Amino acid sequence: MSSDFEGYEQDFAVLTAEITSKIARVPRLPPDEKKQMVANVEKQLEEAKELLEQMDLEVREIPPQSRGMYSNRMRSYKQEMGKLETDFKRSRIAYSDEVRNELLGDDGNSSENQRAHLLDNTERLERSSRRLEAGYQIAVETEQIGQEMLENLSHDREKIQRARERLRETDANLGKSSRILTGMLRRMP
Q1: Residue 129's pLDDT band (boundaries 50, 70, 90)?
Q2: Which candidate, 124, 103, 100, 120, places its Cα nearest to that of 112?
Q3: What is the per-residue pLDDT across 164-183, written as a single tens digit (0 to 9) for each?
């Protein structure tokens, strides 16, 4: 059983060396080759994981008294695998950044361009904020003027209603006066 484990160990060592070499080359390759290399490394990482699983199964079959040494090796291999995956992610991030820069046309002055763009946007935002604030002030003033006008109209309405009431009273009094005068004229000889 330990011979199977040692065979898996050798395969794992060769495979991880190849993966490490390829990961280091990814950032320096032309775009078409990078794509192919990334796919190749992904496939080899899967193979390495399968080898680790096989090695883990072999360790479980080893008698308990000998298992400790192999378990330590397995921990070390799993850590190495984790490091490889981390390195690969970093190289993929660098690769994806390059692809993004190619697609967006960034030419290395991106931080200066971004800074200028951010400053321009900040200025626009501040101008817009000032315009909004001025518009808000105008709306508040307009609302106050409208409120005052409504109050004035309400007072004027009350005055008109009182005047109309006085007019009705006056008209009623004139009607009475007219009837009294008519009655007096009839009584006069």
Answers
A1: confident
A2: 120
A3: 999 999 999 999 999 998 98
Q: How far apart are CA 89 and CA 23, in angstroms?
A: 9
- What 57-64 contacts at long range (C-beta under 8 Å, 24+ apart), as own/partner pairs, is 58/1, 58/2, 58/4, 58/5, 58/8, 59/5, 61/1, 62/1, 62/2, 62/5
Measured CA angle at 132 (ends 128, 138), to 5 deg: 145
Which spans in the chain are helix H? Answer: 2-25, 31-61, 64-104, 110-187
Q: Are 58 and 4 in contact (CB under 8 A)?
A: yes
* Calpha distance 55→69 (Å, rounded): 13
Query: Are 37 and 19 a contacting pair, CB within 8 Å?
Result: no
Cβ neighbours for 58, distance < 8 A, ≥ 6 positions apart: 1, 2, 4, 5, 8, 70
Query: Whole-angstrom Cα distance, residue 104 to residue 118?
Result: 17
Q: How many CB atoms lie within 10 A of CB 72?
A: 10
pLDDT tens digits for range 80-110? 999 988 888 887 776 555 555 555 555 555 6
Q: Is the dihedral of CA 72, 74, 77, 79 positive or negative?
A: negative
